[in-house]
Design brief:
Elements (H helix, E strand, L loop, with lengths): L5 H19 L2 H25 L6 E4 L10 E4 L1 H28 L5 H20 L3 H20 L5 H31 L4 H7 L7 H18 L8 H7 L2 H27 L1 H6 L3 H21 L4 H21 L3 H32 L15 H15 L5 H15 L3 H27 L4 H4 L6 H19 L2 H17 L2
Antiparallel strand pairs: 1-2
Helix pairs in contact: 1-2, 1-4, 2-3, 2-4, 3-4, 3-10, 3-14, 3-19, 3-20, 4-5, 4-10, 5-6, 5-10, 6-8, 6-9, 7-10, 8-10, 9-10, 9-13, 10-13, 10-14, 12-13, 12-17, 13-14, 13-17, 14-15, 14-16, 14-19, 14-20, 15-17, 15-19, 16-17, 16-19
């Protein structure tokens, strides 16, 4: 039976595919392999989600060494939800990538692109699946190192600088994380996260544990681009190949948020993080800073990819805002926005890739009147923009509705008002696109353009359609997020 091995196969399949791609050195074969392992990962993730839907936990011991002595892959409703998200995004982006990569990456580097893509996917899935602190760090580095290469493959020379900047910031974050994990190992004598959580109460008040919490918070915040530790993100998104931008924007930061939640609730415990320490207040201030400052910076950008990159920093603020409220409703809001923003921003960056295919650049000065010649792409961006604003009928509205409910649950009407006001900033920068694409006259270059090929539009519109569908039917997203939130809160007590 292969089903009992699903937790490890989720990671092993893309990890094995990567060296095969290097050996074959064929871009076409590499794309086929990447597509197969991405869709296989999605099938496995859905199967695992079904297995843990009743609240059970799937434990897989590597090498038959029982935990906590051996490495354990541990799947519950929290990370099963994330595994489905990551593999779903990967499955859509890899189909889209064939035409996009052909236009943006030199032919001789196509096999390298898909090799790094498979490694990045393996790393992200491994972070979500593992129950071992050091392996979490290892998978984090696998995903990060492959991301640096993927970003550097961008055709703009500034992609190299963006990749180098990300490498520096990512290395600092990784160093902080491994120091935090090392301190926890020093105090508990174990790297198994579940075992670590059971031993921490005996040493919870020591300075070493508090230092570990501080190191992990800063390191993970760098990885998830929490304001003001986000400086690597705008350039990385702006200059990476379009498929890379869409994949990273929809997955990498979301997986880092999961790591933060796992340590805060499942390892340290909710009471230690939010009751004994002012982490809730700190996260609240930083989240509000992201929501307003990053959105304001987005308004003044001249490049669409940079504009939506700063928008991502703001949207991460909404996720951490939900976490900072330390309530079932707030945590549900944060987790559901993690899913909803992945769909929205994935759709937007895929559609911007269609502009990049035809125009080369996606600056406001180049897209005047483009809605007349690329109406399908332009309308998709408008719908994605409406989701960022939080218009009813989109996934963005669902997230913000639950954030507002969480604010009212705490009696913080002023916070609900700030959530609404921050959405108006999104309205401003989305309107900038509408004004340029729909109300300007196209120049000679734009007038000659045509829509991107169907193999790029169909995946992008699947994401747009998901933004609308899950904005109307919230059973899967809100239901899954509320179950994940309940499990985190239960493990944190």
């Amino acid at each position: 039976m292969i089903a009992p091995h699903f937790p490890v196969l989720q990671v092993v399949l893309p990890l094995l595919a990567a060296p095969i791609m290097v050996l074959l050195r064929s871009g076409r074969v590499a794309w086929v392999l990447a597509t197969v392992v991405s869709w296989a990962a999605l099938g496995i993730a859905l199967s695992l989600l079904a297995q843990v839907a009743d609240g059970s936990v799937v434990s897989y011991a590597i090498g038959s060494w029982p935990p906590p002595w051996g490495i354990e892959y541990r799947i519950d409703r929290v990370n099963a939800f994330l595994l489905v998200l990551v593999s779903l995004i990967a499955s859509v982006v890899v189909v889209y990538s064939r035409a996009s990569v052909a236009a943006e990456v030199p032919r001789e580097q196509h096999y390298l692109f898909y090799t790094m893509y498979a490694l990045c996917l393996a790393g992200l899935l491994g972070i979500a699946a593992t129950g071992d602190g050091f392996n979490l760090f290892v998978f984090l580095e696998i995903s990060s190192l492959s991301s640096y290469v993927l970003i550097a493959l961008g055709r703009d020379r500034r992609a190299l600088m963006a990749s180098y900047q990300y490498l520096i910031m990512g290395t600092i974050g990784a160093t902080f994380i491994v120091i935090g994990v090392g301190l926890l190992y020093l105090m508990t004598g174990t790297l198994n996260l579940a075992d670590m959580a059971s031993r921490l109460p005996q040493v919870t008040e020591t300075r070493s544990v508090l230092a570990a919490l501080a190191f992990l918070t800063v390191g993970i915040s760098l990885k998830l681009a929490l304001f003001p530790l986000h400086l690597w993100l705008p350039n990385a998104y702006a200059y990476a190949p379009s498929a890379v931008t869409a994949f990273l924007a929809a997955t990498a930061t979301k997986v880092s948020v999961y790591v933060l939640l796992r340590f805060y609730y499942s390892v340290f415990g909710e009471s230690r993080v939010f009751s004994a320490l002012p982490m809730g207040e700190i996260l609240l201030v930083l989240s509000l800073g992201a929501m307003f400052i990053a959105s304001t910076v987005a308004v003044f950008q001249h490049d669409l990819k940079r504009m939506f990159a700063y928008s991502s920093v703001a949207q991460i603020g909404y996720i951490t805002l939900g976490v900072s409220l330390d309530s079932a409703t707030g945590l549900t809001a944060g987790i559901v926005h993690l899913f909803n923003h992945a769909l929205t921003k994935g759709a937007l960056f895929l559609l911007l890739g269609s502009f990049a295919l035809r125009l080369g650049a996606v600056k406001f000065e180049n897209i005047g009147g483009i809605a007349r010649v690329m109406p399908v792409t332009s309308f998709g961006i408008v719908l994605g923009g409406l989701s960022l604003i939080g218009i009813p009928g989109t996934v963005g509205f669902v997230s913000k509705w639950y954030l507002v409910l969480a604010a009212f649950d705490r009696g913080a009407w002023w916070l609900a008002l700030l959530i609404v006001l921050s959405s108006l900033l999104a309205l401003i920068y989305v309107w900038r696109f509408v004004e340029a694409a729909y109300f300007r006259e196209p120049d000679e270059t734009v007038a000659k353009l045509k829509e991107a090929p169907a193999e790029m539009l169909v995946p992008a519109w699947l994401m747009v359609g998901a933004c609308i569908y899950f904005g109307l039917d919230t059973g899967l997203t809100v239901g899954g997020a509320s179950q994940a939130a309940a499990e985190l809160l239960r493990s944190g007590r």
